[in-house]
Amino acid sequence: MLPSAIIIVEGKTDRRFLEALVSARFPDWRVLVIDSEGNVKRRVHELRTMLGGLAGTPYEARTFVVLDSVHTRGTKEDLQNLGVPASNIVVWSKNGIEYYYPPTIMAKLFGLGTNELNQLVICDSDVVEANGFQRRKEDLCIEVCKQLTPDTEMADELEAKLLLSLQAVLV
C-alpha cells in the first residue's frame, strides 16, 4: 500500500520523532518519513525519479520537506525546481528538531517550566543541555517519543508549519 503523504527530513532524530508524532496524531493514515542523511535535494530527486516526476502526480501536494534554519543557500528554490510546492517546504526558525519537541515533555525532562525552555542549548557534540542536565540527542528523542500521545500539545511552529498542512492533505 502506498503512503498517503511523504515527509523528507534532514536526519535520523528528525525522522524518528516525526514518525512517532505522525503515527500518534494520524493513526489511520500511512505517512512515510524519510531521513535524507543531510541531503534533501538528493532524496527529492530520487523520489521524483521513482515517480516519473512530482508535478501532476498525487504526491505533488503530498510531499513535504523539512529543513533546519541552517541549510545551503538556494536549497528551497532547488526543491521547488524539483517539483516540491513552496508551501510544502518547511524551514524551522531554529536549528534542531529538539527545539520543536513537545514543551511539556521537554520541561519535565529538564526540570524546567515551559516558559524556561529558552535555556535549551544544542551543543556541537550532539548533546542537548538545560538547567544543568545533559542528554544525547538520540537518547532524548527516544524518551520524548515514548511519551507522545495523540493529545500531546506540540510547539506552535511545528503545529502551524507542518501538522496543519499535513492534516489538510490527509482529510
Task: Give the secondary structure arrangement, pairings included.
Elements: E1 5-9, H1 12-25, E2 31-35, H2 40-51, E3 63-67, H3 75-81, E4 89-91, H4 103-110, E5 121-122, E6 127-130, E7 133-136, H5 137-147, H6 156-170
Parallel strand pairs: 1-2, 1-3, 3-4
Antiparallel strand pairs: 5-6, 6-7
Helix pairs in contact: 1-5
Task: Provide tags for this entry.
39% helix, four-stranded parallel sheet, single chain, three-stranded antiparallel sheet, globular, alpha/beta, 171 residues, 16% strand
Explain what this protein looks like in three dimensions.
This protein has 171 residues and is of the alpha/beta class. The protein has one domain (5-170). The chain is built from 6 helices and 7 strands; from the N terminus they run βαβαβαβαβββαα. The strands form 2 sheets. Strands 2-1-3-4 form a 4-stranded parallel beta sheet, with helices on both faces. It has a 3-stranded antiparallel beta sheet with strand order 5-6-7. This is DUF4435 domain-containing protein. It comes from Microvirga aerophila.
TL;DR of this structure?
It comes from Microvirga aerophila. With 171 residues, this protein is an alpha/beta fold. The protein is built from six helices and seven strands, in the order βαβαβαβαβββαα.
